[in-house]
Design brief:
Elements: H1 3-10, H2 13-21, H3 26-51, E1 61-65, H4 107-114, H5 131-135, H6 160-178, H7 180-189, E2 191-195, H8 198-206, H9 217-237, E3 242-246, H10 255-261, H11 272-295, E4 300-304, H12 307-315, E5 324-328, E6 354-356, H13 364-377, H14 379-383, H15 385-388, H16 395-399
Parallel strand pairs: 1-2, 2-3, 3-4, 5-6
The chain binds 2-acetamido-2-deoxy-beta-D-glucopyranose (NAG) (2 copies).
One 2-acetamido-2-deoxy-beta-D-glucopyranose binds at residues 216, 218-219.
């Protein structure tokens, strides 16, 4: 990474361009030197850390779900719902678009990094995956999907049933690399992250009421959680033991929901009813997961709360450096997402002031805070598993 890259990371792009085209005044030079010193110190620390880098608590991370955790699988599909074009990825290392639906990294990337597994989680469909990248985990997630297989079904995305099929192929490939016995150990000690549900309510209930003809909200919540239950059991049968399941975000605060539901554009506020529904769903989920865990011997299945950190950011934006929480950074921020947030769309000047990147997806800054919250609240619960069973075996300890 070059010095300019580091510099870009810490300053919003627009401001930077202004800065760089200016003659280097004393202040600018000073800033550049300061960043240089900071960067060198950082390099030094990270090199020192590498020598004593703690053994990862989990050898791998496996991810299932929707666009909140799709690190690029949709790039390889015939679907319109893609994030592999600028400005998506403008703040990702190297400023590359990867298919992630944000300006930078997603929660699975940050978690993998916090857990010392790796810096980013690649999509399973990437044909150029190295063996190391494969055995340390991938994402099977697909933007637009949901627990309900009709969600996104017309959009050509990967439904959950298909994500399980890809996982089976993954297992065969890992067995080919490390052998059957090691593969089994690897899968059982990997951390599994599942994040979906928002599209089910958005596509099938609130905005396009397909499922509302069959279910009331409570019935649809139960229907989805029953699907989730079956999905968890399938992963368990395939060898997964440690899973973190994300609840719903405050759906009524997504900029797109506000746009669809609020009557006056001058009075943009969260749709309380949808937030209440999400809270009820989360409460049901938090009480369902321990029941599922008790039915699956030696499993650890924890609830990952994303509602609380998000509503905290929405209610107290200044604590997080945000000035705008009701519209995305891309375009007007009211409707644009996927193909409508593209290289012709203007972006906000300072993305660090925005909770949302587009009208549906949080910005990298928001994802980082959610990740830190989960690191504190959910990861320790997953690790409690250590006490109850055999010591953790990690692949790399075994093979040197
Ligand atoms: C939802 O539907 C079920 C039956 O399908 C019914 O028992 C329940 O009372 C309904 N709940 C609400 C809030 O209408
Ligand atoms: C598991 O072990 C850790 C450290 O050895 C301890 O702090 C924690 O309380 C234990 N958890 C349970 C559930 O026993």
């Amino acid at each position: 990474m070059s010095l300019t890259d580091m510099f870009l990371l810490v300053r919003p792009r627009r401001q930077l361009q202004n800065k760089l085209t200016m003659a280097p005044t004393g202040t600018t030079l000073f800033l550049i030197i300061l960043v240089h010193i900071w960067f060198c110190t950082l390099l030094f620390i990270s090199n020192t850390c590498k020598a004593t880098r703690p053994t990862p608590k989990f050898p791998a991370i496996l991810v299932f779900g929707d666009s909140t955790v799709d690190t690029g699988n949709n790039n390889y599909l015939k679907t319109l719902f893609k994030g592999n074009h600028y400005p998506y990825g403008q703040d990702f290392p190297g400023h590359v678009t990867t298919g992630r639906f944000s300006n930078g990294k997603l929660v699975p990337d940050f978690l993998a990094s916090m857990l010392n597994i790796k810096e980013t989680v690649p999509p399973f469909l990437d044909p150029s995956l190295s063996d190391t990248n494969l055995v340390t985990g991938v994402s099977f997630a697909s933007g637009g999907s949901g627990f309900d297989d009709i969600t996104g079904s017309v959009g050509g995305i990967i439904p959950f049933s298909k994500q399980v099929e890809y996982f089976k192929r993954y297992i065969v490939r890992v067995q080919g690399i490390v052998g059957e016995k090691e593969a089994k150990k690897l899968i059982s000690s990997a951390v599994v992250v599942i994040s979906a549900g928002t599209n089910d309510f958005g596509f099938n209930f609130y905005d396009i009421p397909t499922r509302r003809l069959e279910f009331n909200i409570s019935g649809y919540q139960d229907f989805l959680q029953n699907k989730l239950h079956i999905f968890i059991e399938e992963l368990y049968e395939l060898g997964c033991r440690r899973m973190a399941i994300a609840g719903l975000p405050p759906i009524g605060c997504l900029p797109i929901q506000i746009t669809v539901k609020v009557e006056s554009p001058h009075d943009r506020r969260c749709i309380e009813e949808e937030n209440l529904d999400a809270l009820v769903y989360n409460k049901k989920l938090a009480s369902l997961l321990p029941k599922i865990q008790s039915l699956l011997p030696r499993s650890k299945i924890v609830y990952a709360d994303v509602y609380m950190p998000l509503i905290d950011m929405i209610n107290n934006p200044l604590n997080f450096g945000f000035l705008e929480t009701k519209r995305g950074c891309c375009g007007t921020g009211l409707v644009e997402t996927g193909p409508f947030c593209n290289s012709l769309t203007a972006v906000c000047d300072n993305v660090l002031e925005y909770l949302f990147w587009d009208s549906i997806h949080p910005s990298q800054a928001a994802y980082l805070y959610i990740s830190k919250y989960l690191e504190k609240k959910s990861i320790p619960e997953l690790l409690d598993y250590d006490n109850q069973s055999q010591p953790l075996v990690t692949l790399f300890d075994q093979t040197g």
